[in-house]
Design goal:
There is one protein chain. It is built from 2 helices and 7 strands, in the order H-E-E-H-E-E-E-E-E. Strand 4 and strand 5 form a beta hairpin.
């Protein structure tokens, strides 16, 4: 019997499709704008929001491209997997600066196919196609902080 690693307690009960979409959105924003992952986020079943630090407000065309890219990754039906590693085994390109000071020595890395990897304790879907459609419902810009509000609707669903 395999021993379970000891991790920090996780006090959230995420909605797995929206939480997994957040991972994809984060990687898309990093790839497109060279920014960090969201610095503030609130992920819920009905609507979710992520804030990014950007030097300029994205154009309507760029926002549409973010939505298109996220949906392309979802449609690719990538597996979402995890692996437990020690801090010493974390690849150098993974930023650990936002981990809490008391984070355990063992971390759980979550992989969205070969598109994204990051440390995470939350709940996720098993394949990206389970997310359904990703829609940016609004954006806002305030002095270097760009907020994306998004929704996910189940595969084949009409959304909300």
């Amino acid at each position: 019997m395999e021993e379970q690693p000891i991790l920090n307690a996780h006090n959230k009960e995420e909605f797995p499709p929206a939480h997994t979409a957040e991972h994809i959105l984060n990687r898309t924003m990093v790839n497109m704008f060279g920014c960090g992952r969201s610095n503030v986020n609130h992920i819920e079943r009905k609507k979710s929001k992520c804030n990014y630090t950007l030097s300029v407000c994205p154009t309507a065309e760029q926002i549409a491209e973010v939505e298109r890219c996220v949906n392309e990754v979802i449609a690719a039906d990538m597996p979402v997997t995890s692996r437990y590693v020690t801090r010493n085994e974390v690849p150098s390109e993974i930023d650990l600066s936002r981990l809490p000071a008391d984070a355990s020595e063992t971390l759980r890395l979550v992989f969205v196919g070969d598109y994204d990897v990051c440390p995470c304790l939350g709940l996720h879907v098993e394949h990206t196609a389970e997310i359904g459609a990703f829609r940016i419902s609004s954006t806002s810009w305030n002095d270097g902080s760009f907020r994306i509000v998004f929704r996910v609707s189940p595969p084949g669903g009409l959304g909300e």
